[in-house]
Design a protein that fits this description.
Elements (H helix, E strand, L loop, with lengths): L3 E2 L1 H6 L6 E5 L7 H10 L6 E2 L22 H10 L7 E5 L8 H9 L5 E4 L2 H7 L29 H9 L3 E4 L3 H4 L17 E2 L6 E2 L4 E2 L2 H10 L8 E4 L6 H10 L5 E3 L3 H8 L9
Parallel strand pairs: 1-5, 2-3, 2-4, 4-5, 6-7, 6-10, 10-11
Antiparallel strand pairs: 8-9
Helix pairs in contact: 4-9
Length: 280
């Protein structure tokens, strides 16, 4: 099953009614701005999927900035825009490699395998001079996915503590300066989970416009970080969104025991008020 598809492959399959292009572009805490960006230009036929209202359940900040959605609510909302049973989903976004894997990971979590991520996103599509649509694309509703949770794909804060105590690998996908605690644009404390290692998303990319590195390059990168094939790896970021991109790269490179800590740093500092530092 494809986990990543190219722009060439997608261009060849634009008229395939069994494929749904899901544009999960994101502006932090501003769904209206994300939707406006979608209307300014997207891949023809792509439906807009709101990260904040569909792929998250906002409201309880103690669970982090982007708590997991209720699975039944998520499949219902996706079905209403044409994403459900009998469809192969291609997740994309307005950037190259930032948030689209959130949809990929969540669909995998509820038991769906017919989903892939577009390498390079809309940025690469547009840079190649391909056709762009500037109106909302609507699809007929479909039958919702049955929910068959793969609970082993998620890890909570207590489990992360236990993993670190056992010496297991926990990876931070945020920019290196956020990991080091030098800056923090979103959360009230800066720093990282003690014992976690840093692999910023930028390290996974190559080229202009950016795209995911080759399998060989990813294997070398993860090998240099000391990650072995048989170990469990947990990824986090600020709120459990961009960490999914790191999990996608790990999956692409052949690592199989992967987990997301969805609460990520924004939940961790609620549970551990002494973690990191408060920047002035």
């Amino acid at each position: 099953m494809k986990q990543i598809v190219t722009t060439d492959w997608l261009a060849e399959h634009l008229q395939d009614e069994t494929i749904v292009i899901a544009d999960a572009r994101w502006v932090h805490m501003d769904s209206a701005a994300a939707y406006a960006s979608y209307l300014q230009g997207h891949i023809p036929g792509a439906v807009f999927v709101d990260v904040d209202s569909v792929l998250s359940e906002l409201g309880d900040y103690s669970k982090g900035r982007h708590p997991l959605p209720n699975p039944e609510d998520m499949v219902r909302k996706l079905a209403s825009i044409g994403i459900g049973q009998g469809k192969f989903v291609v997740a994309t976004e307005g950037d190259s490699f930032k948030v689209s894997a959130r949809l990929w990971w969540l669909l995998r979590w509820i038991g769906v395998d017919d989903v892939a991520v577009l390498d390079g996103g809309f940025v690469k599509w547009q840079a190649e001079g391909r056709e762009v649509e500037t109106r909302e694309h609507k699809r007929l509703p479909v039958a919702p996915y049955p929910v068959r949770l793969r609970s082993e794909m998620m890890s909570n804060a207590i489990e992360v503590e236990r993993k670190l105590a056992r010496g297991e690998t926990v990876l931070d996908a945020r920019a290196a300066e956020r990991y080091r605690g030098e800056i923090e644009p979103l959360d009230k404390r800066a720093g990282h989970i003690e014992g976690a290692r840093s692999i910023p998303l930028a390290d996974l990319l190559t080229g202009d416009p950016p795209r995911l590195k080759s399998l060989e390059e990813l294997r070398a990168l993860f090998g240099e970080a000391g990650i072995t094939d048989d170990e469990s790896v947990t990824a986090y970021c600020g709120s459990g969104v961009t960490a999914c991109q790191l999990l996608l790269a790990l999956d692409q490179a052949g690592y199989g025991k992967l987990q997301l800590y969805p609460g990520s740093w924004s939940e961790w500092i609620e549970l551990h008020p002494e973690a990191g530092v408060k920047l002035t």
